[in-house]
Automatic annotation (TrEMBL):
Gene3D superfamilies: 3.10.20.30. InterPro entries: Beta-grasp_dom_sf, MOCS2A, Mopterin_synth/thiamin_S_b, ThiS/MoaD-like. It comes from Mycolicibacterium sediminis. This is Molybdopterin synthase sulfur carrier subunit. One of its GO terms (cellular component) is molybdopterin adenylyltransferase complex.
Amino acid sequence: MHVTVRYFAAARAAAGVETEELDVPPDTTVDGLVEHLSKRGPDLANVLLRCSFLRDGIAVRDRGARLQTLQTVDVLPPFAGG
């Protein structure tokens, strides 16, 4: 299953890329994607613990929700400001 992951702010810095295309197993959930990405290193893993996620522009409330092929997942760390 093919998904696009877009990183913002601290997540972008920790991932070292702005956007990437990934092939993940069918039935991968948002939590499963986070687990997969966290294996890349402690910096990214720590940032991902605090992030929220959008799936095709809609906030993910259930991280156990399954992804679908060609979806875009935005990785959003907490933002400061107003």
